[in-house]
């Protein structure tokens, strides 16, 4: 029976993993305003429905000064794990580079059902997301102070998600950094410094949402060049000033109920195994 189950899954995977996705180029879908659930174009431009992908994707990028929103939809080729292909990533933050501060918000959505990056799906995503962004109130954290001193950087860690150096000599430090991750098991952090300065000072708040099991991982980050700028208290300010919430009930019941690709696979496999056992 296990052989039949394995064979059925392999056949099912090879057939079902090839899906159609909408491909809408970013250079044809740039809008000179900040798209919201209440202010969104009626349709995207120069889109085509293309076959033989293994996953579909949507990327939305918001920027200010000047206001602009860019939308891209596309597909991915190649053999991928279906269990990790219904994901939503949301990031908001500021970057200070060459004395200029820039705000940006990014949404990346990836899915593995046929035509799942349709424009209506984008509307449902926006309708299900709630973002409270007050990061502009603390953006001065990433304003660099010169001349930089390595002893400004705090160093400490309980992180397992990344290798974190906590004994870097002050004279080797070029920029301070902080990364904090919170998931179902707890909170981990890495406060350290980098030995090379790429010139980017930034702060960001991200949420990575697994749409299948409805779990989330929260991440907030800092890269900066001022006294104790990478402290845990500054990281906590980032968390407080940017709230990202997703309404699963609204998303999965908005217009019609969706059955996930994995769920359909499981039901079909159970049916096939039952039929094989019944006829054996």
The chain-level mean pLDDT equals: 86
User: Oligomeric form of this entry?
Assistant: single chain
Number of strands: 14
The poorly predicted ranges are 1-16, 255-278
Terminal CA distance? 10 Å
Q: Give, in spatial order, the strands making up the sheet with the most strands.
A: 2-5-4-7-6-12-13-10-11-9
Description:
This protein is α+β, with helices and mostly antiparallel strands. It has a 10-stranded antiparallel beta sheet with strand order 2-5-4-7-6-12-13-10-11-9, covered by helices on one side. 21% of the residues lie in helices and 37% in strands. Helix 1 packs antiparallel against helix 5. It has helices at 2-16, 119-128, 232-241, 248-252, 261-279, and strands at residues 19-23, 30-31, 48-53, 55-63, 68-76, 87-97, 100-111, 129-133, 156-157, 175-183, 186-194, 201-210, 215-224, 242-246. The chain contains 5 helices and 14 strands. It is globular and about 55 Å long.
Structure keywords:
alpha+beta; ten-stranded antiparallel β-sheet; disordered N terminus; 280 residues; 5 helices
Q: What is this entry, summarized?
A:
The chain is built from five helices and 14 strands.
What's the topology here?
Layout (H helix, E strand, L loop, with lengths): L1 H15 L2 E5 L6 E2 L16 E6 L1 E9 L4 E9 L10 E11 L2 E12 L7 H10 E5 L22 E2 L17 E9 L2 E9 L6 E10 L4 E10 L7 H10 E5 L1 H5 L8 H19 L1
Antiparallel strand pairs: 1-3, 2-5, 4-5, 4-7, 6-7, 6-12, 8-14, 9-11, 10-11, 10-13, 12-13
